[in-house]
Design brief:
The structure holds 2 protein chains of 2 kinds. By secondary structure, chain A is an all-alpha fold. Chain A has 15 helices and no strands. In chain B, strand 4 and strand 5 form a beta hairpin. In chain B, helix 8 runs antiparallel to helix 10. Chain B is globular, with a radius of gyration of 25 Å. The chains are: A mainly alpha, B alpha+beta. At the A-B interface, helix 2, helix 3, helix 5 and helix 7 of A face helix 1, helix 6 and helix 12 of B.
Chain lengths: 304, 488
């Protein structure tokens, strides 16, 4: 319980740090939302009036205090450009990112773990070499290259899937594959290494000596133990996926939070940028907290 | 277990892939893919190119421009009984608004009154000299000005909004209501319109990546693309039998901006050297789209304030080097060139860098995100930068960009160019002499007017690219009933 409370306290510190850093950074980078909104021909009086209306004429400390006060009341503010409540924009965009992240994770797990097990069981043979080459290649392929290649193959040549967009149910497959295949490569390597180590352990020798079938030894005893480090990797990767995968979302016209964040930075839309970074940071730390919890549940040694 | 997982995976994949192929019918939407969605469909706020192009189709303005960019009547014709008064009379039967109320002079007055009253509109400052708008009758109104403005009608290109919705504070930015040929239907991920004359549905989808836009056209997921593609992709599309690519000359002016407060760049010989160091024809031939033409001044030669007699600076590296030596510059001359992170811009920067090196100019490229880059440009924090003027139609741009009293934030004279002779010519609106002087003095290094192009699938007719890149042909474009939605 104490551990959990300490983690929550750390979480609050991290989130406050993120809020402060984001606030300072976005106000330090060149670019003024008033100039973006009014253009260059606006009069000085109009600029001053709008700056006052947006609260940008106050000190940074005052602005930050006001922001925190509103945030505590659940008010993310209003987009400077679209005039929409930021919470509405987040409600529109975040589910898309969440959906894409979960599908990518599913693909990563479904492809990565079986391949890793397969490679470990054939370690040193040609099958292991093939899996190693494929996984290294996949992890080396950037999304801006892999995405269009998948489009070309599955959409243009085979005609099975739509190129991009969110219009149909199967539109998620290609972006999820683009992210999931990269993740699967990492999981394949990790599963292989971890399983090979576990297979050398005494308890596996014992299991074999008891006359258990190789399938039971591997799937019920060895894989279970080998999956512990994979939980950490999955947690970190899930955090990254929820942080918005800007390139994949851009390539596939996927209206997620990553695109919203980039668009808001381009337009110097401070409230949207701050809210996006906050949501991303929250996702990241919460996923990591869940990972730690899972780890403690899965491995009694950590609890001690 | 392993086999079960594999089979399950394959089944899931095949199930997801098993979407029926279907062919288009006459009510199938015409799908237009754009690099950037409009940001704001309220004409009182819109500044981006996509919004401006679409707003021309959703709304109608009092005034439009002819082929030579002279103002011509659109919704109304006008007279000016004296320099401080412009009387506009609406056409006999303007199209009603999309919510079926008639368009009257009251709507025009309400539109401009509301615009002038807005604190956060980028267009409000243009109308700061309007003293009042007098409603004469349901078809006539008079704009009273505080000061003389011979170009006043050219500014009345804001789409007219219905008065009743203005009073209700309707959100035109996301749900526009005008009286133009396209009627707004919905805006979720896709922006959907219905054409008034034949109920043809037209959709706009944003696809930022140019390669993906091309793939979607080839796949039959979109019917039409316009602009915003690198030339190699345009060339690729031209080779595809099922795709038609049409090109036309453009009017958007690309240039190198110079900081004339810089100790070296204030020397005209250095500016001339830069102008002669660039091989425009080679760049246009190799990395620009068809119909791109070398430029000599902001407005193109066909514009009434353009200058067809002017010729582009020729590529002459020896002369450029000689000019630098005559200017007393010790070579190599080091200059910093700022540009955005756009791939084509960065590519052009590297070409300019390579072309200037033999002349003795070491160009250091700084590629910055758009917000930072443009902020630097507006605040004079540059030596050289590359930009394009888009959608310029009035000669007022010469004064705004080069007038001695037009430094930011009052105007666009970002390089702080000062020339009383030019000021006088611009004041007298002697466009030929003024443009010739600008071309000689080189406050900008002119590059080119980029060509316009459109690419569309089989079965599309009635669409052609326009010099300013407008989308006006969406009002007349047709899509054949036999087009396959999934072409491959």
């Amino acid at each position: 319980m104490m551990w959990l409370m300490r983690r929550f306290f750390e979480l609050i510190i991290v989130i406050f740090g993120v809020l402060l850093m984001t606030f300072l950074l976005i106000h330090l980078v060149p670019g003024d939302p008033v100039e973006v909104m009014l253009g260059e021909s606006a009069s000085a009086a109009d600029r001053v009036a709008l700056r006052a209306e947006l609260g940008l004429d106050r000190s940074l400390l005052h602005q930050f205090g006001t922001y925190l006060h509103k945030l505590a009341q659940g008010d993310f503010g209003q987009s400077i450009h679209s005039k929409m409540p930021v919470s509405t924009l987040l409600q529109l965009r975040y589910p898309a990112t969440l959906k894409l992240a979960l599908w990518s994770l599913l693909i990563g797990l479904c492809v990565g773990i079986p391949l890793g097990v397969y490679a470990a069981l054939r370690a040193g043979r040609w099958q292991d070499l093939v899996v190693t080459i494929v996984s290294v290649r996949l992890s080396a392929m950037p999304a801006f290259w892999l995405g269009p290649m998948l489009m070309l193959l599955f959409a243009v040549w085979l005609g099975w899937l739509p190129v991009s967009g969110m219009g149909s149910g199967n539109a998620i497959i290609l972006p999820a594959m683009t992210l999931g295949l990269g993740l699967s490569a990492i999981l394949t390597r990790m599963t292989r290494t971890s399983l090979l180590e576990v297979l050398q352990d005494d308890f596996i020798r014992t299991a074999r000596a008891k006359g258990l079938s190789e399938r039971v030894v591997v799937l019920r005893h060895a894989l279970r133990a080998a999956l512990l480090p994979i939980i950490t990797i999955v947690g970190l990767q899930m955090g990254s996926l929820l942080a918005g995968t800007v390139i994949t979302e851009t390539i596939f016209s996927w209206d997620g939070i990553g695109r919203l964040l980039v668009e808001s930075i381009e337009k110097r839309d401070y409230p949207v940028t701050q809210a996006c970074v906050l949501v991303v940071a929250l996702s990241y730390v919460l996923v990591n907290l869940c990972t730690d919890l899972l780890y403690r549940l899965a491995d009694p040694r950590v609890r001690g | 277990m392993k086999n079960v997982m594999m089979i399950a995976l394959v089944c899931c994949f095949l199930w997801a892939c098993d979407q029926p192929m279907h062919t288009g019918r006459v009510d199938v939407p015409l799908r237009f893919s754009v690099a950037q969605m409009p940001l704001n469909l309220d004409p009182r706020y819109a500044t981006d190119a996509a919004s401006a192009r679409l707003n021309r189709l959703i709304y109608q303005a009092l005034v439009d421009f002819d082929a030579a960019s002279r103002p011509v009547p659109k919704l109304a014709h006008w007279t000016s009984p004296n320099p401080l008064e412009y009387r506009f009379t609406l056409n006999a039967a303007p199209p009603p608004f999309h919510h079926q109320l008639p368009l009257t002079a009251e709507d025009v007055k309400a539109t401009y009154d509301s615009l002038i009253g807005l604190k956060d509109s980028p267009h409000a400052a243009e109308f700061g000299h309007v003293a009042s708008i007098e409603l004469v009758d349901s078809h006539t109104l008079v704009f009273h000005l505080k000061q003389r403005d011979v170009h006043f009608p050219e500014k009345l290109i804001i789409g007219i909004l219905p008065k009743d919705l203005i009073l209700k504070r309707h959100d035109f930015s996301r749900a526009p209501v005008g009286n133009g040929p396209l009627q707004f239907v919905s805006w979720h991920n896709t922006l959907t319109f219905k054409r008034r004359q034949d109920d043809q549905v037209i959709t706009l989808t944003e696809v930022r990546d140019p390669t993906v836009r091309v793939l979607k056209l080839l796949r039959g997921e979109v019917d039409l693309l316009q602009g915003d593609l690198p030339p190699e992709l345009v060339a690729y599309l031209e080779k595809q039998p099922e795709i038609t690519v049409k090109s036309s000359v453009g009017a958007n002016f690309s240039y190198l901006g110079l900081n004339l407060q810089d100790a070296m760049l204030c020397n005209i010989k250095v500016r001339q050297a830069l102008a002669h160091a660039i091989d425009r024809n080679a760049i246009i031939a190799q990395v620009m789209v068809k119909e791109t033409r070398a430029a000599s001044v902001i407005l193109p030669p066909e514009h009434y304030a353009g200058n067809p007699a002017l010729e582009a600076y020729v590529y002459d590296p020896q002369r450029a080097r000689r000019l630098l030596q005559e200017a007393g510059i010790s070579l190599p001359l080091k200059l910093v060139y700022k540009t955005s992170t756009d791939a084509q811009r960065v590519r052009l920067a590297t070409i300019l860098q390579a072309q200037m090196k033999p002349v003795g100019i070491n160009l250091e490229i700084r590629s910055l995100d758009w917000g930072t880059f443009f902020d630097d440009v507006k605040h004079g924090q540059f030596q050289l930068f590359g930009l394009t003027w888009v959608g310029i139609s009035t000669p007022e741009i010469y004064s705004k960009a080069f007038g001695s009293n037009q430094f930011p934030p009052h105007g666009f004279n970002r390089g702080h160019f000062v020339d009383p002779v030019l000021d006088s010519l611009l004041e007298k609106e002697e466009w030929t002499a003024a443009t010739a002087r600008i071309n000689r003095q080189l406050p900008y290094i002119p590059l080119w007017y980029e060509g316009q192009f459109v690419a569309y699938a089989q079965g599309i007719t009635g669409y052609a690219p326009k010099a300013d890149g407008n989308w006006d042909d969406l009002a007349v474009i047709t899509k054949s009933a036999t087009i396959s939605n999934y072409a491959h």
